[in-house]
Design goal:
Low-confidence stretches: 1-65, 84-128, 363-400, 602-617
Distance between the termini: 62 Å
Largest sheet: 6 strands, antiparallel
Helix content: 25-40%
Strand order of the largest sheet: 7-18-8-9-10-17
Shape: elongated
Length: 656
């Protein structure tokens, strides 16, 4: 019979260490949620157990430096070893009668109590790299020192928005379910540097830690991770888990100055963090946006060291995520989505934000008003050095005057679309300026039929329905929510509508009553009109649509091309799953017809011959393809547009 020195630890061990038979004296034990109580028991206890075959076993947790999570992991590993090996989670049920005598505090925040808070406990196959390394799927346990892995099973991923969260590996620095959770992304190293104003001549490599007070903030939130052992270093730091602490940038520089740290190489400097409000992260776990992982400090430190030594930022840390997914038994899930659309979009995000010379200087904010409201957002996404040659050519084609109402624009023809990472709806779009004043430019997209139609009543040829077109996220105050447009000379001569440009030509805007009356009298057919819902807005303060035209983000369509473009768009129909591809094809046809034959800024359509680079068929220096892939960036932009339409207009994100 075994004898024990700690009732609490005996009780915990009895649930998970099934290889030994334990018995205990107490008939009732209360487990509270106090983190320090758990840790003090775990750190200070020496367990002496005697198994049924009378062999003496000794389990020792020697001192406060030992990682209490290691002990818990060994308990989980012991249970996992009795479960069938699988890449998917298995469920075990403890039917011990002693469960009736245990009181569980559901408010437990450090995770140990949560692991025992129900009769069914999810246990993952333990996959060590070496005897000292471990990781397991911790279910929904959120705690300081836990790792959050970007999920890939939700319907709507991070391919179109916030690409940096796709397959992210996030270390939880602080967690309180009722207030706030803070974490930093561990697998987004950049080659951007931050100067040291204390230690002359030193530079610190910057990692992207998250989107809150990140790389481009005026005052970025800086966290310096390290594993220094000295007492002064510990006093200047906040512990996260065994061997991993964080401190401020100012403290890190002082530790280097005093010689306690040898230099910036002793730290990992993260700009920005990821944050969640009360219970927000728990809700996202329910939607499979994330997986929770518990792992040891050495696994994380080894991965940080590996990423620090020559890893290309354009790979965006995918290997680290895949490693941990395999360790927690989700390798099959990771393999199924390797190299998919979201991966490629993440790599393009890494290229635009993590490479030196592409993302600007750390701590220099880009003007948030540029492209605001629904404009391109191009200036917010990348600086001029990230624009390809054709964008540079367009940038030199400055307008001699501001845009005017009635001007028709088309999205950039550059191979690397400025709308790849955000505002994908503007990729190869056709945009009509309807209001131009000293405060803002208002325009509407013409090429996005939605799933709803406007039913025409009283048409002589029977029932007819016009596709309502998504024009943007905003509405014009005090005006009809629907904008009716035509480009028909017959309707101009009949006085239907008024010219947007003030000239007796081009595209006319009319009232709904005028359009319906013209149709009922046989002057017009329903297909003569485009019906738009919503507009885009570019404020003049800090940037304007005219500036984006000067930069080549949009291109002016010659007036003589307008009738042909409108005629082509009029062949689009109400959006369905069956005609998605056809409607996009018509948009592309209209966009092609809108090209200015005199402009040097147009796609060449030339196929790129790939040479052998870092992998077969890959050329890491070929800027026309996504890094470490054979996917052309221009094709990825087309895919992103289709994904945006399927997700936001069709409501079917998994369709493409």
């Amino acid at each position: 019979m075994a004898a024990f020195k700690s009732t609490l630890i005996i009780l915990l061990a009895s649930f998970y260490c099934t290889s030994c038979a334990f018995s205990f004296a107490p008939s009732s034990v209360t487990i509270t949620s106090n983190n320090n109580l758990y840790r003090s028991h775990i750190e200070a206890t020496v367990l002496n157990a005697k198994s049924d075959d009378d062999d003496d076993d000794e389990v020792i947790l020697s001192d406060s430096e030992d990682d209490w999570r290691t002990f818990r992991a060994k308990l989980v590993m012991g249970e996992s070893s009795t479960s069938p090996s699988s890449s998917t989670p298995t469920t075990t049920t403890d039917s011990s009668s002693s469960n009736d005598n245990i009181i569980i505090d559901d408010s437990d925040l450090d995770g140990i109590g949560a692991l025992f808070s129900s009769e069914e406990t999810t246990v993952q196959q333990f996959t060590p790299l070496d005897p000292s390394q471990w990781a397991y799927d911790s279910g929904k346990v959120i705690e300081q020192g836990a790792v959050i892995l970007g999920g890939v099973e939700q319907d709507f991923g991070f391919g179109l928005r916030q690409q940096y969260f796709h397959k992210a590996v996030i270390l939880v620095l602080d967690h309180d379910e009722n207030t706030f959770t803070k974490g930093i992304i561990l697998n987004r190293p950049s080659d951007r540097m931050m100067e040291d104003d204390v230690n002359e001549g030193l530079e610190w490599r910057v990692w992207f830690g998250g989107d809150v007070q990140g790389l481009d903030s005026i005052l970025p939130d800086i966290v310096c991770l390290h594993s220094l052992k000295g007492e002064e270093a510990k006093e200047a730091s906040n512990p996260v888990m065994k061997d991993i602490q964080w401190t401020s940038f100012e403290n890190a520089k002082k530790l280097v100055k005093k010689g306690i740290a040898s230099g910036p190489e002793d730290f990992w400097l993260f700009a920005g963090y990821a944050g969640w409000g009360p219970k927000q992260l728990s809700g996202e776990l329910e939607r499979l946006s994330w997986y929770m992982c518990a792992t040891d400090s050495q696994t994380l430190l080894k991965e940080l060291a590996r990423q620090s030594s020559g890893v290309d930022p354009r790979d965006a840390g995918l290997e680290t995520w895949e490693l941990l997914m395999n360790m927690i038994g989700r390798g099959e899930t990771a393999n199924d989505c390797s190299g998919n659309f979201d991966d490629l979009m993440l790599k393009e995000w890494g290229r635009g934000h993590l490479l030196k010379g592409y993302g600007g200087e750390v701590g220099v904010a880009r003007n948030p008003l540029w492209g605001g409201g629904g404009g391109g957002g191009f200036l917010e996404e990348m600086d001029g050095s990230s624009v390809d040659d054709k964008m540079k050519e367009a940038a030199g084609m400055a307008l001699t005057e501001d845009l005017k109402a009635g001007t028709l624009l088309r999205g950039s023809s550059a191979d690397r679309s400025p709308f790849l990472l955000r505002k994908q709806e503007l990729h190869h779009s056709l945009l009509l300026v309807i209001v131009e004043d000293d405060k803002a430019t208002v325009a509407c997209m013409l090429n996005h039929p939605a799933t709803k139609g406007y039913d025409i009543v009283g048409y002589s040829k029977g029932a007819a329905s016009l596709p309502l077109r998504y024009g943007g996220d905003f509405a014009l105050k005090g005006q009809s929510p629907l904008i009716w447009l035509h480009c028909s000379q017959k309707l101009r001569d009949s006085g239907v509508g008024s010219s947007l440009s003030g000239q007796n030509e081009g595209i006319y805007k009319c009232e709904q009553e005028q359009a319906l009356e013209a149709i009922s009298y046989g002057i017009a057919t329903p297909s003569d009109f485009l019906v738009i819902s919503g507009v885009c807005v570019w404020p003049k303060l800090g940037g304007s649509l005219a500036n984006e035209v000067k930069r080549g983000v949009f291109e002016v369509v010659p007036n003589e091309k307008q009738p042909l473009v409108i005629e082509t768009l009029q062949t689009q129909t109400i959006l369905t799953k069956d005609n998605l591809a056809e409607n996009i094809k018509i948009t592309q046809d209209a966009w092609d017809k809108a090209a200015d034959p005199n402009s040097s800024c147009k796609s060449t359509g030339t196929d790129v011959v790939l040479t052998t680079g870092i992998g077969e068929g890959f050329d890491e220096d070929d800027d026309t393809v996504v890094f470490n892939s054979d996917k052309k960036v221009s094709e990825l932009a087309d895919d992103a547009l289709q994904k945006w339409i399927a997700t936001f207009l069709l409501g079917a994100p998994t369709l493409t």
